[in-house]
Structures are given as structure tokens and as C-alpha cells.
Design brief:
Layout (H helix, E strand, L loop, with lengths): L1 H16 E8 L2 E8 L12 H4 L11 H15 L8 H6 L4
Antiparallel strand pairs: 1-2
């Protein structure tokens, strides 16, 4: 019973603090794991810069893309941003 409890707690901690995104590397899709800066049950994130070679203009971002960037920046990099300027998009490019 104790082992089951320990496994359950470790699974919960992993779900809260481990995330991933997929990146295209040399024609193959790789899964990149990371430790989240803030706990959340969201595990899969989207790094808009991992698959695009070009820099995305903030004016052309859809609301969905903007929200994905905000989530990625907050949980992967620890930045709280509203992604209103091009500099905000570039800050989320780091790492």
C-alpha cells in the first residue's frame, strides 16, 4: 500500500512539474522534456520557435498562437508576458 501511495505521489509531482514540446530536428520529430517553472496539469506545450525557421511577427499571431506562446513562456521559461510587442515574442525564443 505504501508503494502504491509513493507511486501516486511521484506521478502527481511529475504531472505538475514536467512538461514537453515537440521540435523538428533534421527531419525527425523530437520530444523535448523540461522542468516547469510553475506547477500545472498541462503537460504538452507548443514552442512556436522550435519548428519555424522564420521569426513570427506579433501582428500576425492568432489568439491561439498568442496563448500558446504565453503558456510556453510562463511554464518553460518563467516569464509572464502578454505578447503584445515583437520583443515579447523574442524573449520567449531564448533557450
Amino acid at each position: 500500500m505504501k508503494k502504491l501511495l509513493i507511486v501516486a505521489v511521484l506521478t502527481l509531482v511529475a504531472a505538475l512539474y514536467v512538461g514537453y514540446y515537440e521540435a523538428l530536428e533534421d527531419g525527425d520529430v523530437e520530444t523535448i522534456l523540461f522542468i516547469k517553472k510553475h506547477p500545472t496539469f498541462q503537460m504538452k506545450f507548443y514552442n512556436i520557435h522550435a519548428n519555424d525557421g522564420e521569426i513570427r511577427k506579433v501582428e500576425r499571431l492568432t489568439d491561439d498562437e498568442r496563448n500558446k506562446i504565453i503558456d510556453y513562456c510562463k511554464y518553460r521559461l518563467g516569464f509572464d508576458t502578454k505578447v503584445k510587442t515583437q520583443n515579447d515574442v523574442e524573449i520567449c525564443r531564448t533557450k
